[in-house]
UDP-N-acetylenolpyruvoylglucosamine reductase (Flavivirga spongiicola), 337 residues
Amino acid sequence: MHIKRNISLKPYNTFGIDVLANFFISVSSINELKQVLALNEHPNKLILGGGSNMLLTKDFEGLVIHINLKGIEIISKNDDFVTIKASAGENWHEFVLWCINNDFGGIENLSLIPGNVGTAPIQNIGAYGIELKDTFVSCEAISLETKTLETFTKTDCDFGYRNSIFKQRAKGKYILTSVTFILSKNNHKLHIDYGAIASQLETMHITHPTIQDVSKAVIAIRQSKLPNPKEIGNSGSFFKNPVISKSNFNTLLQNFSDIPSYPISEDEVKVPAGWLIEKAGFKGKQFGDYGVHKNQALVLVNYGNAKGSDILNLSKLIQKTVKRLFDISIEVEVNIL
Ligand code: EPU
């Protein structure tokens, strides 16, 4: 076991924020992870997966445990479906591509989402009409309390929009070690009704799309709208899309007739936070090394050496301005540390 000291976390978070961890270890087996968890001299621990959904605002005084568990395994298959278990440290997009190359369908709409397999269920990643929960079977996680491996079924996980048990009552209590998915082997059920996908496929002159085509379309859309974290530090959507009552929405419509919305229930609608932030004048705004992305106002960016606290302060200003203009509170989606 090799614990390093004073390590920069810059390469371990997609925002590219340069803070230090007092102690750092990368674990590549469950046994090693259990040994590290048993160390009493480091009571303060931070579990790091792909680092794609966090904003680091200060040095971490404690032990950072980087989850580097690898492996993809076919658990079972029949004529129509395959069950696959992927280890938590597998890169999400590489896992999606592995499935597509094997012609396993179901997660192609989730192409190019940053992060790792083990962090995907925590916020139930979603894009273009599909969420992780749609193909999720179960996951395994080590309890920080008992140090034993437990299995969580889909029902146990209590998935919601960018939400799961791991963001609620199990928050900070478990480390996910693997996720099991059920994917189709043939007769793939494609989800291409999401506006941007249909028009992208048309641009690509594809009339009978395969899962490969859908993945390519999603990649093209994401590349045109969202900054690549390898080039510009970011954490995807910084805020969640707020859900508001229909009556509040109707009042807003009187002043903002072009406000988009998606029905949620009989009396609630979801409003794109990106639209609200753009209307509030923040889209494309740059303040030194940080700002709001020019193509998608939901995404806050680090152009170089921004501090996490700068980005946090900008997010608070955005929240305050949106509240003042629209009387809507927008919630932060990323974890602030
Ligand atoms: N919009 C604007 N201005 C903007 C951004 C968006 O007016 O700057 C409007 C668009 O014109 C459109 C609507 O908002 O009418 C929705 O935009 P988009 O399709 O880009 O989706 P989104 O609601 O902004 C969500 C997810 C994304 C996901 C896309 C596609 C959340 C918080 N974000 O964004 O997820 O890729 O849908 O499914 O739900 C992520 O979670 O990191 C992420 C990128």
